[in-house]
Amino acid sequence: AVVSTQSTGHYYITNNLRMNWAQQAPRGSPPDKGSFPLDHFGECKHLMETYMECLKKNNYNQRSCRVQSREYLQCRMDNELMTKEDLDDLGFKGIASSEKSDNSSDDVT
């Protein structure tokens, strides 16, 4: 509770209020997939840069860069920088073959 002293006109917060506020502070939760190591040796850096360039070129529309995203995640799994999972389960079902062939035909013109 806030308490005032009539003689000085100052206000102070009692210890009970401080403890209640600290106990009610929101607590974070760990990520669903856990943590994963950073790419200290740059094993997948070129794919990450390609993905970032694609995002910039496409106004940060992630759907336009799904092939690059898939390749980057595959590289991380291949180099044990993240847990191996089926990319289809991560939302990349059918991406590699269909969009790569579409993109390669666009580059020819």
What would your notes on this structure say?
The chain is mostly helical and 109 residues long. Helix content is 45%, strand content 6%. The chain has four helices and two strands; from the N terminus they run E-E-H-H-H-H. It has a two-stranded antiparallel sheet. Strand 1 and strand 2 (11-13) form a beta hairpin. Helix 2 packs antiparallel against helix 3 (66-78) and helix 3 (66-78) crosses helix 4 (95-108). The longest helix has 14 residues, at 95-108. It is extended, with a radius of gyration of 25 Å. It starts with a strand and ends with a helix. The relative contact order is 0.10. Residues 97-109 have low confidence and may be disordered.
Write the layout of secondary structure elements.
Blueprint (H helix, E strand, L loop, with lengths): L1 E3 L6 E3 L1 H9 L21 H13 L8 H13 L16 H14 L1
Keywords:
109 residues, mainly alpha, two-stranded antiparallel ribbon, 4 helices, 2 strands, 45% helix, extended
Relative helix content:
40-55%
Instruction: Note the run of SSEs as H and E.
Output: EEHHHH
Sheet of most strands: 2 strands, antiparallel
* Termini Cα gap: 73 Å
Strand content: 5-15%
Question: How many beta-strand elements?
Answer: 2
Structural class: mainly alpha
Strand order of the largest sheet: 1-2
- The gyration radius over C-alpha positions equals 25 Å
Mean pLDDT: 75
Low-pLDDT runs of 5+ residues are 97-109
Assembly context of the chains: single chain
Q: Give the number of helices.
A: 4
The dominant shape is extended
